[in-house]
TrEMBL record:
Native species: Paraphaeosphaeria sporulosa
Domain of life of the native organism: Eukaryota
Heterokaryon incompatibility domain sequence ranges: 259-411
Name the record gives this protein: HET-domain-containing protein
PANTHER family assigned: DOMAIN PROTEIN, PUTATIVE-RELATED, TOL
């Protein structure tokens, strides 16, 4: 159960600090023979925001802190899986995959036996550095120790844990130990690659095909259950017909229900021209729909798209979905309609290819990678084994990589049933069974079940902990709010599929990041209590990644046909967090604020407040957009929740939305307001003794 998992470090889903408390819900070169890579079953049996000054009207106070964040990234397991390794070994040229020339090592290293139980290496750094001048292994260990240990440390102590070597003070392995297929020992040691195949070799695609075949056979949850096609697909052809063209699936029924979807970064579109489909192409480039249905010129595709076509063909799949080609771009395009189908596109894909190492459409991802350093040592029977530079780091290579800072990618990962990630260091595969590395290491993290869940968010909803269920959506939205978009007005669209899944899971209606779980629930009030982030966020190594600061209102163009209300964080650019009442201590003010049936506005009671004479730490109000002395509109409040513990209302902590009147939006004589912030204050500062003003908040 997720509520039994130990929290071991800064976040997996979130890479941030601890948050406020969360209360429970109320109520309810080829190594293969030619062509072998394409026989998939041959070896198988059945946005960061700049720091800004605090708003002039902000009242500082310390909020309650009880951490209910989800379990974290640093708790990685590396289970041995040599059954899969043997299948790969049967498909590759072992002479090239596993070097047999032993490394030049010093006398001290020749005495080491990494294969003994309880192996420990302990040495002074100065001695290790001197020996590294002539010893391959000492050099490897010294470099790893420098990266993984305290810079002031004079000694290094490395222990073997299964097939990994770790420094006690570092949660991640610093070296890996792999065996080749000829070394047979009872010790649990991963059969793995000390060197990586060329990304365009048949050996490379054999690994990818075996990942998919293994998943097909063993993971029922990763199977695509529906056969709904995207509006358009790219036909990449077959072995006998290398056609490349766009098809509209309502006109031409695909001959195979399987298709690949691409996740990629567009990059700076002004600097790197994109390959887009348009409705009418007056440029003469023949990028209109009808021309591309006749032929997509492979030679004109940017490198990332060519690599995707090549990979799709190598995986034996005929159809491909790329957003900029399969969605008509431009003011007269069909983005608004197609954006609503992203859940079906990514969850219906046979596999998603994620071009993590490509910064734009022209970068490509099937490029040589830096080879890991390794030492070849003599094992039992004279067979080699390998001590290698540890390059299995899914967090750094994928989760904290530049592509995963893009807004659309979070949803693509969550909705995909399985994904192949092409990173700068190596290629990874993620499905419901965990994460596989190109080195043949298998990785698992308890929270990989969250966004890696092929039926997202089923696994996290199995927990009996309501706090964790709430934390799931809050952490997800906090993370999403800090991501980067080429177009800020994509913000509501790029999470629509996730939002739909969450609404089903929570049995709630909702819109724009706000849930409506009915009169007996509390998700509505909790989801309203977001505020501009006042915390810097950290990555898994403790480095600051996202900075707090004032938000910026998004200007949605008319063609988007959307009006995001002020009470939604999707109306702004900037990171958010939640102002949560202490655990189990709040009554929700259902008589003060409620949603309209269509979630286009909120019905609310507007009240005055005056913080004159306040004491330190009594109140904390955060404005969404930085206010200045020239802003003359009077700020009022709407009560969302009240603390339970105090006898009198004046002493209760009131959690509020801050609002201002919108005179130009008067609705049939009824007052209309917009949200401008959120926070909390004691009731004595709120005009509770007089009736409030009924109004609508848009």
């Amino acid at each position: 159960m997720l509520d039994k998992i130990e929290v071991v470090g800064p976040g997996y889903l979130l890479t941030g600090k601890s948050r406020s408390s969360i209360g429970p819900l109320d109520g309810g070169t080829s190594l293969l023979s030619e062509g072998a890579a394409f026989k998939r079953n041959a070896a198988l049996k059945p946005n960061s925001i700049k720091q800004q000054k605090a708003p002039l009207t902000q009242i500082h106070a310390r909020s309650y802190k009880v951490d209910h964040t989800l379990p974290t990234l640093k708790g990685w397991d590396f289970p041995i899986d040599n059954e899969f390794g043997e299948m790969v070994a049967a498909r590759v040229n072992s002479t090239e995959a596993w070097p047999r020339e032993f490394s030049q090592i010093c006398a001290q290293c020749r005495e080491l036996n990494f294969l003994t139980a309880g192996f420990v290496f302990d040495e002074e750094m100065t001695i290790l550095q001197k020996r590294s001048e002539t010893c391959t292994l000492c050099r490897l260990i010294h470099e790893a120790a420098q990266l993984g240990a305290d810079a002031k440390s004079q000694r290094t102590r490395i222990e073997r844990q299964s097939s990994k070597l770790v420094i006690t003070s570092n949660p991640l392995p610093v070296l890996s130990i792999f065996r080749g297929p000829d070394l047979k020992i009872p010790l649990p040691l991963q059969l793995g690659f000390p060197i990586l195949p060329n990304p365009r070799s048949s050996a490379f695609f054999a690994i990818l095909n075996l990942w998919l075949s293994d998943c097909d056979i063993n993971h029922q949850d990763c199977h695509v259950s529906t056969k709904v096609f995207p509006t358009r697909l790219i036909d990449v052809g077959t072995y006998t017909d290398s056609r490349l063209c766009l098809i509209e699936t309502y006109e031409e029924q695909p001959t195979d229900h399987r298709y690949i979807a691409l996740s990629h970064a567009w990059g700076d579109v002004n600097r790197y021209p994109t390959f887009n489909t348009v409705r009418k192409d007056v440029s003469g480039a023949k990028r209109d729909v009808e021309s591309l249905k006749e032929r997509i010129p492979y030679e004109e595709l940017p490198a990332t798209f060519r690599d995707t076509v090549d990979s799709t063909r190598a995986l034996g799949i005929r159809y491909l979905w790329i957003d900029s080609i399969c969605i008509i771009q431009g003011p007269d395009g069909d983005f608004s309609e197609e954006a609503k189908k992203m859940e079906d596109v990514y969850s219906g894909a046979f596999c998603v290819l994620s071009a993590n190492r490509a910064q734009n459409q022209h970068d490509g991802f099937l490029k040589p990678r830096p080879q890991p350093k390794y030492a070849t040592l003599t094992g039992p029977g004279g067979h080699p084994y390998y001590v290698c530079q540890a390059i299995d780091n899914f967090a750094e290579d994928v989760l904290e990589g530049s592509l995963n800072q893009r807004g659309w990618v979070l949803q693509q990962r969550a909705l995909a049933r399985r994904t192949i990630y092409f990173s700068e260091a190596q290629t990874y595969f993620e499905c419901g069974g965990g994460i596989r590395c190109e080195t043949m290491t298998k990785m698992h993290n308890n929270m990989a079940d969250f966004l890696g869940d092929p039926k997202f968010p089923t696994k996290v909803m199995r927990t009996e902990s309501r706090a964790l269920k709430i934390s799931a959506f809050q952490d997800l939205y906090q993370t999403y709010s800090r991501l980067i978009f080429t177009r800020d007005d994509d913000r509501p669209f790029a999470i629509a599929g996730i939002e739909k899944r969450l609404q089903i899971a929570y049995k709630a209606k909702g819109a724009y990041g706000i849930f409506d779980d009915g009169p007996g629930g509390a998700l509505f009030h909790r989801s309203l209590l977001w505020k501009r982030s006042e915390e810097d966020m950290e990555d898994s190594r403790g480095a600051t990644r996202h900075q707090s600061g004032a938000m910026r209102l998004i200007n949605f163009p008319p063609e988007r046909n959307i009006r995001v209300p002020s009470w939604s964080w999707m109306a702004y650019v900037g990171g958010i967090e939640y102002t949560d009442p202490p655990l189990g201590s709040a009554d929700w003010a259902k008589d003060e604020i409620s949603p309209s049936l269509d979630m286009t506005f909120l019905n609310a009671v507007i009240r005055d407040f005056n913080l004159a004479g306040r004491l330190k730490d009594e109140a904390h109000l955060t404005y969404d957009i930085e206010r200045t002395a020239s802003d003359s509109r009077r700020t009022q409040c709407v009560i969302v929740a009240r603390s339970k513990g105090e006898k009198y209302d004046r002493d209760k902590t009131h959690y509020v939305l801050l609002v201002t009147e919108e005179r130009e939006l008067m609705d049939r004589g009824e007052k209309v307001y917009k949200r401008v912030g959120a926070g909390f204050m004691p009731g004595k500062y709120i005009a509770l003794h007089v009736p409030g003003i009924p109004a609508k908040i848009y």
